[in-house]
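Researcher: Structure for this, please.
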Amino acid sequence: MGTEAGGADLQTLARVVGRVRSNVERVIEGKPDVVNASLVVLLAEGHLLIEDVPGVGKTQLSKALARSIDCSVRRIQFTPDLLPSDVTGVSVFNQNTREFEFRPGGVFANIVVGDEINRASPKTQSALLECMEERQVTVDNTTYQLEQPFMVIATQNPIEMEGTYALPEAQRDRFMARVSVGYPVEAAEIAMLNSHTRTNPLDDLEPVTDASELRKLIGIVGQVYVSEAVQRYAVAIASATRRSDELTLGASPRATLHLVRAAKAAAALDDRDYVLPDDLTRLARSVLAHRLLPSVEAAMTGRSTTAILDTIVAGVSVPDSSAR
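Model: Predicted structure, token format:
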């Protein structure tokens, strides 16, 4: 089982994450759940998909998170004419040396902000597959390792929007979680009018941690204990989605792994060095729903994948939480 995360480690994590959280909340007001989900994915070494209608702060959230960490950040604006080589990099012939030299693309950074990812063609979207899963890029038979930590924060508009392409299933499965920012409550929107009309709060955002400290926090999260009963519960949820008549595509083994890793991060944020079944239940929507495909019958009746998933999770027996 390895060394468990200690109390001092969790205090360090809480202190650093608290600084990042308050930094991000200066830009994204009144959305603590969305900010928390972003931090869970960051600490679990995952990738985050932010899906919502235009103008609710998707890019602001991704930029605020990126600017809170003193590490390399690159932004890729996904457009219909974006090429895969713009994402991964390209080999260019140098006339002086008479040799090909590699020019890195937009993914060579600790945090990659992919804005409106579903406006690019599926061919270009697929350029992210290798780097998101294997933390490496292969161009012209040469493999380049990406520096840790590495996180893709992508924003996308709903599929019904004009000029968008659906993300391939393989791409969606590589995102640990999907969150929706949603419209702000009235008080937060009024506060935004006061704070955002004079200046952009992003301009004043200073980094509150760095890449090396973030690597330590990821290590602390990795030591959080997951009992066999909780592991079985995660597998039971994933298996239930694969057997469901309402779904044509259930959760993959990667989805099960992401669910447990996210639960470890969520437990650490709650100042616990062990995962509870409740952690999995709480995260099931954001971690699993975007990977599932409803059957034709379910789609015709208007049942959303979230509603189907809620029914499936409710039908899986929960292990006794006292048995850690």
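Researcher: Any notable elements?
Model: The chain has a mean pLDDT of 87. The longest helix spans residues 7-25.
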